[in-house]
Amino acid sequence: MLGPDPEQMGLIKNMCWGNLREELVLPYPEISAEETARCDQLLAELDDYLKNEHPHHEIDVKQEIPQWVVERLFSLGVMGMIIPEEYSGGGFSITSYNRVLERIGYSCGSTAVMVSAHQSIGCGAIKLFGTNEQKEQYLPQMSKGMVSAFCLSEPNVGCDAGGQETRCEISEDGEHYILNGEKKWATSGALSGLLTVMCKQAIADPKTGKVKDRVTALICHPDMAGVEVFSRNRSKCGIRGTWQARIRFTNVKVPRENLLHKEGRGLNVALTCLNYGRCTLSAGMVGAAQAAYEQATKWAQYRHQFDRPLAEFDQVQSKIATMAAYCYALDAMLYMTTGIVDRGDADIMLETAICKVFCSDIGWRVTDEAMQIMGGEGYMTENVVERLWRDSRINMVVEGANEVMHTFIFAYGSKQLVEYLLGVKGKPFSHPITALRIAAELYLGIKRKAPQFTKLHPLLEKHGKDLAIAIRDISHAIKMCCKRHAEGLITNQMMQMRLSWSIIWAHAMACSLSKMEKSIRDGLDGALLERDRTLLNHICEIGMDRIRANIRALTDNHDDSMRKAAAVGLQYASSLPNSDFVMPESTPDENAQGKGRAPDQTYIEQFGKGSSVLGTANTKT
Known about the structure:
This protein has helices at 11-16, 33-52, 56-62, 67-76, 94-107, 109-129, 132-144, 266-302, 314-342, 349-378, 384-393, 402-426, 432-443, 461-485, 493-521, 526-552, 559-575, and strands at residues 148-151, 167-170, 176-187, 194-204, 211-220, 227-231, 244-255, 259-260, 304-305, 308-309. The protein is α+β, with helices and mostly antiparallel strands. The strands form three sheets. It has a four-stranded mixed beta sheet, with helices on one face. A hairpin with a 2-residue loop joins strand 9 (304-305) and strand 10. Helix 8 runs parallel beside helix 10 and helix 14 (461-485) packs parallel to helix 16. The protein is globular.
């Protein structure tokens, strides 16, 4: 075979090729009955706590999660769910863990983020990459009471995880790493007893001897000399109860045994942990979307205007239908993704990235529609929707901004297909039959045969055929974009975004079909079956419409006028004095560095400095 074997590629990469690996999407993933029962019991206890004790509004207003709440979550077993039982944890699967995160997200976005940061990227790093000694030392503590933080972002490092400026070097005696640099946005950093720190290290290639900078992960503690939490938190729009620290490392001596994984392999640690973090971010968003949908729909039933309920108006019904269908698809994609992680699929980066983009974007749209349905009351602080709305917006920014994720989904998903096409183009006479088939598709518009579902229930046959055709058309569109734009496609983010959204919606349909197939197989019938089929029908109609629209926009768009208008907008911005506007704290542009307006923080709460773990924290002001 020319090119990679389809069996070696995941579900999404195969879609880019126009293939369907049905065994990766059907049947819908499940966890054991024993674990389901254990998780159900934990959820029952958690639900009772969240309904009757959890201080949702206090956390939002006072911008802090009380210590007793953190301790309660530890005692419930929530904070150690993914830690193996041999290290005093719950030993739960990623699916069970995300069920709990969804329930927390339904009630309190701040708490969901705090729990996720501790486990997904804090505990997760030690669990996945720690030595036996590191696991024995840290995991029991992280399960029972010690909060952890993941230090990746920096003043100049956001989505570019490989651009670390924090550095480490081996000490003269060879016993320590000497760590210097600064970290930003470290969730719970001021509350944590363990800090996983990403840093650059100069490493010699063992084969060539050439020295290159690589990312290394180190385990640090707040009591190490030279570790300074100089900002515990900043006031925010949403998830106000979470604290994001700024931490400075000055000549910190980190013992060599605190190396996590291998030297130069820290980026692998970070990206792997982000796969888990993207699931739990999605779970919190799924819970928030469900809460917003339920509240807004109840409101629409009983809020009367013009002598009838809002729910009787077509535009409101459109919002309710969309929210209901979105929530079905959000749930389907979340637990398809966690199932993929739990079963140990080798290539999951695309699936977790898609889950993050879809859940953050579509989930926030649900909260936005809920806000519109509730009108002025939705905007009031005492009503839950405005907090869900504020808490949800950040999800499109963190764990990889969605704009960056779209480029990644396109590039990583289609990379092997593009290399395959270039290989045939470079040596057409070496593969004449393949070259003729591709030429027929690219120049005569003769599309390849659509893949087929063979395991779907007959009730789902129509949607299965529609999705198969969409998969074929997406693959054809990728090939045509390669022909049309050639190397220009590498930097054309508008085309990448449209292809990415097409792939995302195809995946959303596949997840929804799989979830529905499982429901039928499990005996769902009557009114409940009709309800779910109705939602499935609507999400598939929406999905097909979005796929067609994005493919159509690959050739029928206003990108040229957009770029000209953007140039005019940027020219106007350049005419404005930098001194009137907030500037990035660090920029390579000397015309802007240090010349912007300092934000007025007179009436903005300040959170002081120092580590709560060490008892050195200043009081909030």
